[in-house]
Amino acid sequence: MSIVNLYLPSPNFDERPEGESIRLIVVHAISLPPDQFGGPGVAQLFTNTLDPDGHPYYASIHHLRVSAHYFIRRDGKVVRFVDPVLRAWHAGVSSWNGRERCNDFSIGIELEGCDTLPFEDVQYRQLAGLIDELKRHYPIEAVVGHADIAPGRKTDPGPFFDWARLRRDLESM
Asked: Is the full-model pTM beyond 0.85?
């Protein structure tokens, strides 16, 4: 994908089930440490290099084996961790349109953000550009939030994510 600024391969992926098509994009939000931006925590988490002594919160999550296909930083830089043809481990226990295991048929895009602050203009532009690019390669049927596929368990991308703005940005492409 041409919008990607950096590729940091994550070991946290596997093959999609045979014959499974990519039909869903899941938008997430993450910040490490929580509510702090710009540091290496997310990349370290997704590459299994997070130091449990680096921050008190890290001791409770450093053992997780998770990833996303893409991460869009606050400054708009796009990092790819997992090739979209592979299954990243981003959705966890999840369901969409009666189908469980959303990782099997989705692409996960993490935004550097949290539930308490708005996202940056450049993040919306990059997200729309990335989604547009992905739609040209895969039969994407929907773009949803993590909270939509894991209600009660997840809240991201959170109350400050502007879905109407994303729709407008996508329509203008």
From this structure: yes
Report helix, strand or coil for 120. Answer: coil
Catalytic residue, candidates 18, 110, 112, 141: 110
Residue 3: how many other CB atoms lie within 10 Å: 17
Return the structure tokens found at 56: 């008190």
Q: What does the pLDDT look like over 96-150, one tens digit per residue?
A: 999 999 999 999 999 999 999 999 999 999 999 999 999 999 999 999 999 999 9
Identify residue 116 by its one-letter amino acid code.
Answer: T
Q: What is the DSSP letter of 32?
A: S
Whether residue 34 is preceded by a cis peptide bond, meaning omega within 30 degrees of 0, is no
- Cα(71)–Cα(64) distance, rounded to whole angstroms? 17
Per-position b or e across 84-95, b if 16+ CB within 10 A of its CB: beebbbbbeebe
Any alpha helices (H) in the chain, and if so which ranges?
A: 41-46, 121-137, 146-149, 163-171
Told to judge if 141 belongs to the known catalytic residues of this protein, a careful annotator would answer no
The CATH architecture one would assign to domain 6-171 is 3-Layer(aba) Sandwich (3.40)
Which residue ranges make up each domain of the chain? Answer: 6-171
